[in-house]
């Protein structure tokens, strides 16, 4: 019944604001075209407001899930006409507020004291209002200026209604649409479910902000405001009040003399730093959440707020993604195709040559072009067609990253359309890969894993023994199984010797590393790569003496 009510509500808003006028009827199949022509929304008069406001107000009425969608669209000047995109920017911080008295009551209930006892000054008039929360200006008793963020009352119920409907539609798509299994719609909705519910817990947002602040402490790229944990609860967050120019106000940035090229390049660097250095990235970087510190216009600095949605990547996804991007930047489409197969993003029986040719056809036209000359809509269409042709599966764990990349690329278009995204990103990725696979990266990995390897080494022979016993007691019924047991028995001694040699080699290298009072960078420079190999080889041979049988 709840789902049915929500469907009726969505249909009512769709009809009331005549959103059918945005559909490309001429491009629809004939059956759908007839259905839309006969649909009941034609009984409603067309709104007199312009189409941008028409779409914005409809999204506001439908709630936070639809507002989030509108926020993403607002940065896509290449996908929407300017007037519509401009109207949707109002979704970033000018969603209709709820009463200040209600906000004050929530604050007092959460913090257990009156606003007069908590703050020297508190403004009931909200500074900004978004789909999930709104913020009020305040001054702490010690004189610090802060903002107080308050979750909208009743918002969780609305979100749960939308999510329930999304789960239903995703399940139907996955079951009855031929493309459903490849697109994993249920998993995508589940990831969004976790993300949006995390955004409703302001203590989690405060923790995210604290982590990002540590990651970029004393950075010239971005500033993260401090969190006042004494005044932070599940539905209330108190944070340093920042001063800056909204990133979407390009005219104000120009008036302040801000170097927009530097600003755009820094935005790209921030994105790749968060994703690859930290594996912890701000995933809600729409213009309403980004400001600019123009104190030094020649070297401007970003200021970020609203940390309810952050993303992380598993090491495997991080590595595959970096290698894919580097191969893409170098136009090594063969490696891009092979990496997609290795990672399981396309079926293992995919013909590499055909897949390579398809990727080249889509990607080659966008190289050596600034953002302003790239038709992102055509590029996406080509990617979708390639994905469908080669049965490429959607990776739900990367959806949040892709959304963030859309925001970053959209901001780049607004700030500096001549930005060369490729030359800006490639050096960063190359340096990151060198640090990951070079001597410094090897030593860092060794320092991290050596204690676990040493701790687990005594258990390895016993684990092999237990596996043999399990196979024996399972009663192998064919010669292949018996042969496998014999091979395991024969390899047990060799595995034992190799394991002990490996541990000895790693231990020797580790001791050598610990004995040198230098940081990783100076150590990597002081010892040539072949020196480490020779040292490990010597330890390997020494550990094998007396264990030939």
Brief account:
60% of the residues lie in helices and 9% in strands.
Question: What do these coordinates show?
Answer:
Helices cover 60% and strands 9% of the residues. The protein has 549 residues and is α+β, with helices and mostly antiparallel strands. The strands form three sheets. Strands 1-2-3-5 form a four-stranded antiparallel beta sheet. A hairpin with a 3-residue loop joins strand 1 (119-129) and strand 2 (133-140). It starts with a helix and ends in a 5-residue tail after the last helix. 26% of the residues are buried.
Index terms:
549 residues; globular; 4-stranded antiparallel beta sheet; 4-stranded mixed beta sheet; alpha+beta; single chain; 10 strands; 24 helices; disordered C terminus
Level of helix content? Answer: 55-70%
Strand line-up in the sheet with most strands: 1-2-3-5
Q: Rough shape?
A: globular
Q: What is the gyration radius calculated from CA atoms?
A: 28 Å
User: Can you count the beta strands?
Assistant: 10
Question: What proportion of the residues form beta strands (DSSP E)?
Answer: 5-15%
Look at the structure and give the mean pLDDT. Answer: 75
Main β-sheet: number of strands, strand sense, barrel status? Answer: 4 strands, antiparallel
Please work out how many helical segments DSSP would assign.
Answer: 24
End-to-end separation: 73 Å
Structural class: alpha+beta
- Multimeric state of these chains? single chain
Topology:
Blueprint: H1 2-16, H2 30-38, H3 51-62, H4 64-74, H5 82-88, H6 100-111, H7 115-118, E1 119-129, E2 133-140, E3 145-151, H8 155-176, H9 180-183, H10 185-199, H11 202-215, E4 222-223, E5 236-240, E6 245-246, H12 250-255, H13 260-278, E7 281-282, E8 290-293, E9 301-304, E10 310-311, H14 315-329, H15 333-342, H16 352-363, H17 376-389, H18 396-415, H19 421-437, H20 439-456, H21 460-473, H22 479-515, H23 520-526, H24 529-544
Parallel strand pairs: 4-9
Antiparallel strand pairs: 1-2, 2-3, 3-5, 6-8, 7-10, 8-9
